[in-house]
Amino acid sequence: MVSRLPLSALDRKLLRDLWGMRSQALAIALVMAAGVSMYVTYLSNFDSLRRTVDTYYEQQRLADVFVTLKRAPERLTDRLRNIPGVEVADTRVVASVTLDVPGLNEPAAGLLVSVPSGTRPLLNDVFLRQGRWPDAGRPDEVLASEAFCTAHGFEPGASVAAIINGRRRNLRIVGIALAPEFVYSIPPGEMIPDDRRFGVFWMERRALAAAYNMEGGFNQVAFSLTPAAQEAEVIASVDRLLEPYGGLGAIPRARQFSAWTLENELTQLQTFGFLVPLIFLAVAAFVLNVAMVRALALQRPQIAALKALGYSNRQLAWHYLKWALAIALTGAAVGVAAGGWLGTAMIELYNQYFRFPELEYRLSADVVIGAVAFSLVAAALGARSAVSRAVQVPPAEAMRPEAPAHYRQSLLERAGLSRYLRPTTRMLLRTLERQPIRTGASVLGIALAGAVLFVGFVFIDAITELVDSEFQVRMRQDVTVSFVEPRSARVLYDMERLPGVVYVETQRTVPVRLRAGHRERTLAITGLPRTPTLNRVIDQYGHETLMPATGLLLSSILAEVLRVAPGDDVTVEVLEGARPVVRLPVAALVDDAMGLQAYLASDELHRLMREGNLVSGAYLQVDEARMSDLEARLKLIPAVAGVALTETMRQSFRETMAENINIQIFINVIFAGIIAFGVVYNAARISLSERSRELASLRVLGFTRQEISLILLGELGIVTAVSLPLGSLIGYGLSWLIVGSFASEVYRIPLVVRASTIAWTWIVVATAAVLSGLVVRRRLDQLDLVAVLKSRE
Amino acid sequence: MFTARGLTKVYPMGDVVVHALRGVDFDLFPGELVVLLGPSGSGKSTLLNVLGGLDVPTEGHVVYRDHNLTEAGEAALTEYRRDHVGFVFQFYNLIPSLTARENVSLVTEISTDPMTPEAALELVGLSGRLDHFPAQLSGGEQQRVAIARAIAKQPDVLLCDEPTGALDITTGVVVLEALAKVNQELGTATVVITHNAAIAAMADRVVRLADGHVSGVERNRTKVAARDVTW
């Protein structure tokens, strides 16, 4: 008796056939794996981050609406609580300070946040990682943000000096803490986090209030809303109520800096998690289709025999579809493993930027199932047409050899160039032309590899461009100083007398709400000299934009948000001092990279404010040799709220970016290489299998190995050469799409393509093509002439 | 068993139109061994394909018992092949990635009342080669695997297209012996296509085809044993 076979004969055939074409199958599976791993990396991080964020926000009661004001009496709290839609209103005192951190030359920025004595904050609760809460009646005890402590190696017990309301005070760190509103935080006025130079400190409310004359008052309120509340209405009521108290305009959680950044990151993860794998899987489907068409052509006699034996079209279609699915499953398995590994690495990166009590990597079953399903669908789509065409051939017809392929003279020959073409060149051109779809698929596949690489490099170009234009063109000052309160322009002379200062330019910023129709944004108008020399206004490509003679200069992002154009008026509601409300014309737009910006000539701004020559900050040009003297002095000046050093910012930016960029280059090159190799290798193997008889005949006729290699590899060379510029074009289009999707109210990325990007893209793709060409070339050298010619086609 | 009337088949081959059958009438009776004799291009294979449900005629009709093959759809033809017909091809058409036993299993797995692959292979004298791949077998052995594969389902009719066409005389005779043995022991009606007139001697009936027509039908009074066939 037959022992019961665990696998049907057809499934055994499947496995052995796959094994027979394993190198091709593997190449396709790897392209799929690349797509799947991107999907898993992005979406598992999305998933991990989403869960962590939601849990953290809920547990620590992150507020729904935030508002900062100048000062309001505590008795106002009840009225705030009674606003319809408000569930909880929690007031506090907040102050920005300059820190003198042991071991750090330059001054750092600190944010002091009050916590209630003896109880926990109602909203934005603090998570205590280590140590204890400050004791009541100990004004020097604080909790310090974990990021800052880690950056300096501070443990509970360490001390930091702060200039609090003009007096230098020692703060003793008794606990290390985190809060949901500071998951992501950057030093004021900068672009990326620098944990060494920015810390949040939680201090008992009575102590902090006393230091800033805020007893019985507050300067910040957070609200949580009832589920049915209309956010916009609540915000309007809050703003109305707080206007007499110097309210700076309430912002919803969606625009709170840390929450906004996180949401933005999550959206990007999700977008990328679909977009990038889509490209990879589309390429894999293409390649699979071409490979299947050829493999099934070779299977014609077997298909016929199986049909004659009584196998139905459906059974055979399923059999051959399983080829594709098996390849997809292999790809998915490798991809999920690689994605899990990359995902863990990515979470590590997030842990450097985002501060959570715990951000753990979690690879959920949903993501894995999604990845597998995604790749199976791609494979099925890729194989579908090839399979259905192959199995629909009537069995008797499949038994006859295929009719000789139709060839005709190629385009170049028809153009009358045939006498310049050698027979082998003609073969090559006619083959390429005979199957335009397949040639096109190969070209497109390789082009997409180039495109993937191109997009990656363009992002690096963009960041470099951003850094260059920010730090070399826009910020020509060495130091930016901001004052606690606007000061008389006489401060200019004080600044000029500081050690090392060569040149000073002043700056005035005024908090305002800009309105156009029902659209509004709260931001700061920056008053600049009519011809600024240090801090200038530049567009995203680094070109200086001149200050208009009169009227506002808006960043084009802001103009888009407000839907205004030059010539339109906007309403300016000043949120400081006498809070004048005026209408100003938009004079010009600047197409810049960073955020919501509005500029006005400083004399015009002073007129608007009905004030004299007040300044909010100063830009300093400094003699490099005396920089450290200056840093030491600035730390001690009570009027100084913040100090930003251009060189330090640039360095920290560079360091952070360099790390990310290197990882990105590595991943891009590997993945694009996989695609290019996979496509070229498959194209070459298919040509080889189709033409081995032809090539063997040529060898018998006396052609050398070199010459027949040239026919086969020449074909690939042409395909690759055509695909290179196409890849750059597609890459440009994709970059344009992605850059567009990145554009937000806070920043956008300039689309810059350097010659080196195109060069590197081409070099990597061409190298992958050459490598796969060499692998196939080896097979060509081993061509068994007799066996090939004897075998029945 | 089979009644075919007025069969015509026209098909394109590249740029050429081939008239394979031009009005052929044909009958097959249970248990008989018929040899279809004719030069290449006479329409033998096309007739066989039509009888086997691999192809449909352009005109005319074929009835197998109560099955009208001319009107049957793809699914019905597949079922017909699966249940009633065994095929043996000139070039064996074995699945190269499957062993002898597995090639036979392909059929036994989808039939209702098959013999075991081992029994089928024993019948053609290949008990010792069960786990060999086609590439490890000689041409005659491969053809005998194909016969085993065709008869394992115990078909009503066995259709053989030039079964010895690719073989030398010694191996060819072994294959013919296997066919004769199946015909006698299992009583399977058998049609053998050949252009080799010597093989006609082992048939019950010989049908001659030329240029898409039936040019003659003869009944052999005495059948020659397969091992005595020579050419």
CATH H-level superfamily of chain B: P-loop containing nucleotide triphosphate hydrolases
What's the CATH first level of chain B?
A: Alpha Beta
**Would you count the extended β strands of chain B for me?**
10
Number of helices of chain B: 6
Tell me the strand percentage band of chain B.
25-35%
Radius of gyration of chain A: 34 Å
Structurally, the number of domains of chain B stands at 1
Largest sheet of chain A: 6 strands, mixed, barrel
Helix-residue proportion of chain A: 40-55%
Low-confidence stretches of chain B: none
Blueprint (SSEs and pairs):
The complex is a heterodimer of chains A (793) and B (231).
Chain A: H1 9-20, H2 22-59, E1 65-73, H3 76-81, E2 86-92, E3 94-100, E4 108-115, E5 127-131, E6 141-145, H4 146-152, E7 159-164, E8 167-178, E9 198-204, H5 205-211, E10 217-225, H6 231-242, E11 251-252, H7 257-298, H8 300-308, H9 313-353, H10 365-391, H11 395-399, H12 411-417, H13 423-434, H14 436-474, E12 479-488, H15 491-496, E13 501-516, E14 519-528, E15 552-555, H16 556-562, E16 569-574, E17 581-590, E18 598-601, H17 602-609, E19 614-622, H18 627-634, E20 640-645, H19 646-701, H20 705-742, H21 755-781, H22 785-790
Parallel strand pairs in A: 4-9, 6-8, 14-18, 15-17
Antiparallel strand pairs in A: 1-10, 1-11, 2-10, 3-4, 3-7, 5-8, 6-9, 7-8, 12-19, 12-20, 13-14, 13-16, 13-19, 15-18, 16-17
Chain B: E1 2-13, E2 16-28, E3 33-37, H1 44-51, E4 59-64, E5 67-68, H2 74-84, E6 85-88, H3 100-108, H4 117-123, H5 139-151, E7 157-161, H6 169-186, E8 189-194, E9 205-210, E10 213-219
Parallel strand pairs in B: 3-8, 3-9, 6-7, 7-8
Antiparallel strand pairs in B: 1-2, 1-4, 4-5, 9-10
Helix pairs in contact in B: 3-4, 3-5, 4-5, 5-6
